[in-house]
Amino acid sequence: MLGNAFHIALREIRRNLMRAFLTVLGVIIGVAAVITMVTLGQGTTQAVKNQISSLGSNLVMIRPGMGFGPRASSAGVPNFIQSDVEALQNQIYGIAAIAPVSSSNLSTIYRQNARSTSITGTTPAYFGINNWTLADGRLFDETDLRNGAAVCVIGDTAKTELFGTENPVGKLIRIGKTATASSASSTTEEAAPYSSSFQVIGVLTAKGQSGMGNQDDTIIVPLAALQRRLTGRSSSRDISQITLSAKEGADSDRLITDITSLLRARRNLDRNEDNDFNVFDTRQIAETLSSSTKMMTMLLAAVAGVSLLVGGIGIMNIMLVSVTERTREIGIRLAIGARAREVLLQFLVEAITLSSVGGIAGILIAFGLCVGLSRLIQVPFLFDLKINLIAFFFSAAIGIVFGFAPARRAASLDPIDALRHE
Amino acid sequence: MSPPLIELRGITKTYGKGDAAFQALRGINLTINQGDFVAVMGPSGSGKSTLMNLLGCLDTPSSGEYLYEKIAVETLNADQRSLLRRHALGFIFQGFNLLARTSALENVELPMIYRGISTSERQRLASEALDTVGLLTKLSNTPAELSGGQQQRVAIARAIVTSPSTLLADEPTGNLDSKTTGEIMRLLARLNSERGITILLVTHEDEVAAYARRTIHVRDGLIASDESKP
After folding, report:
1. Whole-prediction pTM value?
2. Which of A38, A165, A280, B189 could bond A387 through an S-S bridge, CB–CB 3.0 to 4.6 Å?
3. Strand, coil or helix: what is B86?
4. What are the b/e assignments for A127-163, b being 16+ CB within 10 Å?
5. Yes or no, beta carbons of B82 and A339 under 8 Å apart
6. Of the candidates A4, A15, A415, which has its C-beta nearest B113's C-beta?
7. What is the radius of gyration, based on Cα positions, of chain A?
8. pLDDT class for A221, splitting at 50, 70, 90?
9. Is pLDDT of A191 > 70?
10. Cβ neighbours of B88 (radius 10 Å)
């Protein structure tokens, strides 16, 4: 009986190729859309996660300013001084490494290439805290820091923009205020009273684009070199950020509380005054970013759900449009002696065959789309078996229900009523 | 004398319920013997098609007894009626009722698929049946590629391919011209005389009824007359 049903079902599919194709198309659209959307959404989420972890683990950042996020303001708020960094290092338990950061947007020149770049003055600890690794050359060390040596380590974007394909290690670049650079400079560029030549000693491994801006467009110099050779600030209150890494297993909430109370005391804030600085760790950054990726994933899931619905309605329409013809067919089959269950088995086999073919084609198409698109928008391709199965079985269920339900109704009629169906 | 093939006792059929109820058959008593060629005649709305559908187990009576070869048909369920149709009955309809986009050969093969006959045997029997109706050259034509008369001959081939004991034809020539009507009726008469197939035929044309040996007139859900040719 099953063999017969297969025989008849396949014959019916061959006979009605257009109808079969349209049914399969509905399933394909549903399955492929859902899988592609969800897979790309997950890839994007993963990409964001990767970038957050590239910031460094247990990372804590301290910045002057009121508030955090869109309402942040740093206008008129004093920076930190070197002794703040030393106080934190000596008095707070749970800090593994700490680095002061002073940054300025300055013009950089190598031969004909001039551009504005973020120049960061810091200590050697900075590289470890921020998970920077070397692609080429060396990092600067404590000796360079003490001497204020005119050396720099450059990020991948800065390297490409200034040097192109040339090997930058050992080359000299000019940083600071220059006639050519200032005339072409942007408004964000700060006026440096001095300019100086720096030797490139190392190139950093690229971290890639992130929700935090391009981290690779950077040039890192010893803090003393920045202060003495470029900004020339007489005041030592020029540390715009302090980054530190917490010790393994340290309670980060406790750490943030301790840092906050120490800095409040050092900055002479009254009890009723708000903090004029922010302390935040990677977890908070991750939470901010992941709430937006979560929203995006939900949006994608909604779009995918709509495609599944559209595909389902497509299947439904084809099945319902052909119901008159099929009801007569059922009447004929019953009249010549087929039992209702034999006819139903045939229709079930037909619906399952078409839905499975559509589902498998949808999965294959989605796989191709995901590989191509994830390369195009530069997110990792994560194959998710679960969503493939969900999409497949959901579409198959729609195909089977709407292929089978009208047949069930028709087969329950007296044969003469099925034959007379208009 | 052998027992009757078909016996109807007090068959009624009511459509609808309550005030809208319409009694199409109001108590039919009828006996049909093996090898009969019966024409059922009557004006439209008289209940002759309803009677035919009940005889063919395509529809179920509201009350009364129906014995087919001593089987009480009114006690059978839908599957058992399917099996009775499969093994004993063949149908010819006014509208042919062939499967669209399906070759003549495959249409004729159809009833044999449900009988579990092998592919090669099916094709041999189907070709034979199509030869009987004179369509051996049209095996691979679909209904759309055949004339009305040819389609009805395919339907006849489909009906006789399983060697049924009874052939039920509901206005088989209703959609055909007079020349084709003659061809189809001669074919049915030949099947009746050569193979001994019992034929029940619904028609409202006297020329068609003339081929039968017995004519039953139905009026207002009752048998008005029952005449046999000598």
Report:
1. 0.70
2. A38
3. helix
4. bebbebeeebbebbeeebbeebbbbbbbbbbbbebbb
5. yes
6. A4
7. 33
8. very high
9. no
10. 19
